[in-house]
Design goal:
Helices cover 71% and strands 0% of the residues. The chain contains 21 helices and no strands. The longest helix has 31 residues. The protein is globular, with a radius of gyration of 22 Å. The chain starts with a helix and ends with a helix. The relative contact order is 0.18.
């Protein structure tokens, strides 16, 4: 009987109940909330479902992301190897290739002024950089944190790795992806605060048709110009434009379909679950992480506000031809931010279709955030 009792006792003590802390329960609750938002509310489920599940797993079984040095047999946890691909910048670059293969840059080509709106929305990044320094972060950590303002998860991971801030990569990535998913909640109040009812109801003229030649030349020219000026952006901008060239060239349909479908979804699974697995209670529930989350939110709000305010300026300059709402789409959350611009505009006038106009600043924001990351790397001599 003693053998049976000892065996049952060992089995009982192997359950997670004897190892969970109050912090683990908090993070498990957060994971449930994220799953609810993703499944019930439809907030970027492709991102939130794997992130939330990774969060759930690591707070029940921390060894799932343990490094080989932390284990008795010298073999790391499953998600440790997924996460290594983040640190090596492999997954962020592949994500950009997939985004490029899925993206139509036609609205940006048809309305080049969208570049300015996309650039204006990057104000939040540089504003948050100085705020982070005031809060005690060193210069490289401040740069890594501030990039959250672009609402671009892959770029946030990429820059944190390049600047040697791997210790902050988990909170930074979770904050960036969370704000990407929460765009429909965060942006509308800011958009309405800085615009009038009349401005939100402005109808924009149809975009001009864009030729196939223009679409083919665009990724080639952008790669040449941006990567010559900021060579360190090549892994992101280069992969983004390569994916887009697959799409627009029309001669590599199989590559385009693979990059935008099978490869993209595989990478999202690996990246999402590994990012979620960085949110163990011990790593996430501390003052530094709370500062990162707060700064990321402030940066994202500032970026949204800057885009809208610059949209108002362009509205005045063009004599009311530009709806300021499309300026909010200058953040990198593609295509969610553009959809939010459409939604807020349609609330004032259901016949107002802003989606394609908003896609211009939206895809410009993707390029803009990568360029902002390149500027930081150039400043620090990376």
């Amino acid at each position: 009987m003693s053998y049976v009792g000892e065996t049952l006792s060992n089995l009982l003590h192997q359950t997670a109940f004897f190892n969970l802390t109050w912090g683990n329960y908090i993070m498990i609750l957060v994971a449930f909330i994220f799953l609810f938002l993703a499944i019930k509310k439809g907030f970027e489920p492709l991102l939130l479902v794997p992130i939330a599940f990774g969060m759930l797993l690591v707070n029940i079984y921390p060894d799932i992301i343990a490094s080989p040095e932390e284990t008795s047999n010298g073999v790391g946890g499953l998600l440790y190897y997924f996460y290594s691909l983040d640190e090596w910048s492999i997954l962020p670059s592949l994500i950009f290739m997939g985004v490029g293969a899925m993206t139509d840059f036609g609205p940006l080509i048809a309305n080049p002024i969208s570049f300015l709106l996309g650039a204006a929305a990057q104000f939040g990044i540089f504003g948050a950089y100085f705020m982070a320094i005031l809060l005690g972060f060193n210069d490289k950590a401040a740069a890594a944190v501030s990039i959250i303002g672009g609402a671009d998860g892959p770029t946030s991971i990429f820059l944190a790795g390049k600047l040697g801030q791997t210790g902050l990569m988990g909170p930074i990535a979770v904050a960036a992806y969370s704000y990407m998913a929460l765009v429909p909640i965060i942006q509308p109040p800011i958009m309405k605060l800085f615009t009038t009812k009349e401005e939100r109801a402005i109808k924009m003229q149809n975009l001009r048709p864009v030729s196939k030649l223009e679409k083919i030349l665009f990724p080639i020219v952008v790669t040449a110009v941006v990567c010559i000026l900021l060579p360190t952006t090549a892994p992101l901008v280069g992969m983004l434009m390569l994916g887009n060239l697959f799409r627009e060239s029309g001669v590599v349909r199989q590559l385009s379909e693979t990059a935008s479908n099978a490869m993209m979804y595989i990478v999202v699974i690996l990246l999402g679950t590994s990012v979620g697995a960085t949110t163990s209670a011990e790593a996430f529930l501390n003052i530094t992480t709370l500062k990162i989350v707060a700064l990321g939110l402030i940066a994202f709000m500032f970026g949204t506000a800057a885009g809208v305010l610059f949209g108002k300026v362009m509205c005045k300059v063009t004599g009311g031809k530009i709806n300021p709402l499309i300026g909010s789409a200058g953040v990198s959350a593609v295509p969610m931010a553009a959809r939010v611009s459409q939604k807020v505009g349609a609330e004032e006038d259901p016949t107002n279709f802003l989606l394609m106009h908003a896609m211009g600043p939206n895809v410009a924001g993707v390029i803009g955030t990568a360029v902002a990351a390149g500027v930081f790397m150039a400043i620090f001599g990376i």
